[in-house]
Each structure stands twice: as C-alpha cells, then as structure tokens.
Design a protein that fits this description.
Chain lengths: 303, 245
C-alpha cells in the first residue's frame, strides 16, 4: 500500500531530518515507527500527507505519487497530527462528527461510528463537554477518534497515546488493531514501546533520520535475554555472567543470558532483598541500539 | 465541483460551531466600532456640514470592514497558528480554496450587521439622505473581500506575534492617516501619492460613491485597484496554504 524508497528530507537550514529511508506498509499491517525526539518520524509522516516536500527519493501510495498529488493523498490518508486537534468551543461529539463529515462520511454512518468509538474508548461521559474543559488524555483520545471516524485506506497516528491513562491506552490499542483487521494500513509513531510491541506487526527504528533496524518486534527483541534489576544496595561487584550493566542512582540493571537465570537470582538474593528478573523486550533493544555510537556515525547537519 | 461545495459548506459549519462565542463577541465589538466612529468623530468636529457628514457616515462602515478583515480575521488566524489548528486543517481532505473561501465568508457574514447599523446611526445622527445605487452591495462585498484576503495573506505569511503587531499598525494607519473619514486633499502630497496604491482610500470611495452619489458618477478605477488587491491577497494566501516546507 505504502512504499517509501530512499526518502531524504533536508530542511532549508540544512537539517537532514530523513536520510535514505525505505519502508513498506501493506494493507492490514500495523507499522510502528520508533525513535528519539528529532529522529525524523513526524517529518516522514508530513511528507506522505503533503505537508512537506521530499528532497530526494520516492513515495508510492496505492500506486500513485502523493508528492505530485497531495490533495489526493489527503483523501486516502487519515492523519492524527501530534499537535492538539482544534477542540476549543466544540464538544467531543461535535468535533468527531464534523471531521467525519468533512472526511467524506455520510451523516448517519458518522453519527453511528462516533457513538461506537466513544463507547469503545470509554469516553462517553465527556461526549458533550466542550474541548477546553477536557484533560489532555481525553483531548488526545478525541483527536484519535477524529482521525479514525472515517478512516482512509492509510491511517497515520502521531503519538496517539500521549497523556492517556493506562486503561484507555489498552482500549485505544484495541481500536488500532481493529483498523488493521479491517484492512487499513496503519503507521504509528509512539514512544510507548513496551505497549506498542504487543500490537504492531513491524517495527522501524529511526535514529537521526536513518533507519537503524526494521522487522517484527519478536525478531528484533534479543532472544532469551533477561534483565535483572537490583536496588537498595551499595555498589556490588558486577558478576561475570553480566552482559551489560547500567546504573541509575542506587538501582543496578544487568542484562544476562537466560541460562544464567538461577545464578542471577542467587546472586541478587545475596546482595539485596529488592530485585526483579524480567525478559528483555523491544524497549531494551531500542535503547541499546540508539545508545550505540556506531549507529550514530552519520552527522545530522549538512555543511 | 460537488466535492468542493460540500467541503466549503461543511467547513463553514465547522467554523460556525467552533467560533460561535468568539464571533458573536466580534460582531458586538464591530457594531460598537461602526456606531462609535460615527458618534465619536462627531465630538471631534465643532460643526458638521453635509460633506463632512457624508464622509463620516460612509467612512465608519468602511473602517468597520477594514477592522474585521485586516485586524480581527488575521488575529484569529494567528491564534489558530499558535494553537496548531491551522496545521490540523491542512491535513484534512478538503480543497485549499474551500478552506480560504469559507474563512472569508465567515468574516463577510460577521461584518455585515455592523456595517448596516453604522449606516443607520449615521443617517439618524446627521439627518443624512442616502442615494443608494445598485452598486452598494457589490462595493461593500468587494471592500470586505479585499480587506479579508489581504488580512489573511498577512496572517498566513507572518509569524503570529508579527501578525498581531502589523494589524495594530494597519488599523492605526487606516484610522488616522487614510482619507477614509476625510477628503484626500487634506493630506500632504506624498501621502496622497501613497494612497493611490494602498487600498484604504479606494475602499472608502467605492462605499461612499455607491451610497451617496447615485448611479451616475461612479468611477471604475477604485474598483479595479480593489480587485487587484483582492487577487493579490487571494493568490498570496493560496500560495502559502499550498506551500510545502
């Protein structure tokens, strides 16, 4: 559905926001775009939807060129921008219904879908409250509804779970998954890696404008590694089976191979009574990858 | 075409819902302004002859339209830019011309009541007889269009704080240094020359002529200048709206 090939974007002041990015999203696929602030995620989305013009490379959306036809691109792509949606003076329901209609939906279908979404995200109690009286989380959920009330073939969500409480984040992930199940291609930008890991099909990790890793989350997360967290102890000597260690205040985090689990538990119990042992997930991989100086050799500034 | 019109109407409705409180406030302020200029300027002048009355009565609604289009509309766009509304609307699947025209329409509607009330008060206050020509409505629409398109172009092009300052400057120039409420020959010659190009004098003239001169004696030149400003404002606005970083 969406093919991005060698996409490069250099802003006028010389910032290389995207550097030879290639990725593909199929219908029914949920692609998660991860990266630090300033990694180029939003720039990438803005080019697909015609808010920014690529410096090089090509974008193909449903067989057509969204760079040449930005108006068409907007008609097949629903976008939830990172900035807050305009909700001042309108109620949650009015905002969702109005944008649903503007996105081409029929009155009755939009009304029905709005009611369904409000129920699915458990925000019915705020349905008739004006936007300025809502909390950040409810505003964000409303913006999500505005993007998906009449979803395009491609749906792009820029940090949809920011400010949202944990219970409703789960409801939102379920809705995102349903979009994919209905055949929409979904591109999701998020910093909520631990949760996103469970819903996305493919991960693309951006670092300073470049793709540093791509693949299914299960394939990227290091196999059979564990993370031991030890706290409330003065600096113990690091055991030989530790693969990596990280210290934050009085908390020591040790990454180890799964076969050393028993050794690790015995060692941890001998130095403190506060410790936990967990499997390493995508987030760990992400942090390792983006902290690795080898991945950061490319300068972001062009002379 | 059907998609365009549907988008235009839905955007109008969306603005009306979003801005209903603010726009009703603007409407009230605008009425005060039009009526206030008529009554206020009358205090400034010791005696008011029919010619002065003619200028004041038609200058007030003109200034009202300028304030709406070149101050209030751009300031609202500046706020929309700061809040992110502006960018949000750029991601919607609607023609950009529909976005601009729905905005212009909103301001035309908001500007109309003040214009009519200002005129009514002037007629009562100065005991003035208007000779309204058929051109009165097109003239008022043209003035409102020119003011709004130029105002939006400024707001779209400039950063929000700059817009807010520039619009203050515009209203100051229009009110004090433009031949709107008084004849152009009272100004120094160099300023008269500048006003040949600026829209203010022409705005005042088309409103004044169409309301008081009768069907005869309405020169075409000011209409042409205003149409050019309209075209310029609209083109600049559209260019900025469709520009990509």
């Amino acid at each position: 559905m969406l093919y991005i090939d060698n996409l490069t974007k250099v802003y006028r002041r010389g910032v290389r926001a995207n550097d030879s990015i290639s990725l593909a999203v199929a219908g029914g696929e949920l692609l998660g775009l991860l990266g630090h602030n300033g990694a180029g995620k939003t720039t990438l989305l803005n080019q697909v939807v015609g808010l920014a013009r690529p410096t090089g490379g090509t974008i193909t959306l449903l067989g057509r060129d969204p760079v040449a036809e930005p108006a068409w691109a907007r008609s097949v792509c629903s976008f939830q921008p990172q900035a807050h949606a305009p909700l001042t003076g309108v109620t949650v329901r009015q905002a969702i219904e109005s944008i649903g209609r503007i996105r081409g939906g029929h009155r009755r279908a939009v009304r029905r879908r709005t009611t369904e979404l409000l129920a699915a995200l458990d925000i019915e109690q705020w349905a008739d409250q004006p936007g300025e009286r809502l909390s950040g989380g409810v505003r964000r959920l409303t913006a999500f509804c505005m993007a998906v009330v009449q979803p395009g073939r491609l749906v792009m969500l820029d940090e949809p779970t920011n400010d949202v409480d944990p219970a409703r984040r789960r409801l939102l992930w379920a809705q995102v998954r349903e979009l994919a199940a209905a055949g929409h291609g979904v591109v999701l930008v998020t910093h909520n890696i631990a949760e996103a890991e469970r819903v996305i099909d493919t991960v693309v990790i951006l670092d300073r404008g470049r793709v540093t890793a791509t693949g299914p989350p299960a394939a990227l997360a290091p196999d059979r590694q564990l993370r031991l967290e030890v706290s409330g102890t003065a600096a113990p000597t690091v055991p030989a089976w530790a693969l990596r260690t990280r210290r934050a205040g009085d908390r020591l985090t040790i990454t180890l191979a799964a076969e050393h689990a028993q050794l690790a538990v015995a060692w941890a119990a001998s130095v403190t009574s506060h410790f936990s042992l967990n499997p390493v997930g995508l987030e760990e991989f992400y942090l390792t990858l983006t902290a690795n100086p080898e991945a950061n050799v490319d300068a972001t500034l062009v002379p | 075409m059907r998609h365009w019109f549907r988008s235009y109407l839905l955007l109008l409705r969306w603005s009306a819902i979003r801005l209903r409180y603010l726009l009703s406030l603007v409407l009230v302020v605008q009425i005060f302004l039009s009526v206030g200029i008529v009554l206020g300027f009358a205090f400034l002048l010791p005696q008011i002859d029919p010619a002065t009355a003619r200028y004041l009565a038609t200058g007030a609604p003109t200034l009202g339209l300028i304030t709406i289009g070149m101050v209030m509309a751009p300031q609202l766009v500046a706020t929309a830019k700061t809040e992110g509304t502006f960018t949000y609307h750029q991601t919607l699947p609607v023609p950009r011309t529909a976005v601009v025209l729905s905005e212009v329409t909103t301001w035309l509607v908001v500007g109309a009541p003040g214009l009519l009330l200002g005129l009514l008060v002037a007629v009562l206050r100065f005991d003035l007889t208007l000779r309204v020509s058929w051109l009165a409505v097109p003239a008022a629409v043209l003035v409102a269009l020119a003011a709004t398109t130029v105002g939006l172009a400024i707001a779209y092009a400039a950063a929000p704080p700059v817009t807010n300052m520039v619009t203050q400057l515009i209203v100051f120039i229009a009110l004090m240094f433009s031949p709107i409420n008084f004849p152009a020959d009272r100004l120094p010659e160099w300023l008269q020359t500048i006003h040949q190009v600026l829209p203010f004098q022409h705005m005042a003239q088309v409103v004044r002529d169409s309301l008081t001169a009768g069907p005869a004696g309405v020169p075409a030149a000011p209409y042409a200048v205003l149409a050019a400003w309209c075209a310029l404002g609209f083109a600049a606005t559209l260019h900025i709206m469709t520009r990509r970083d």
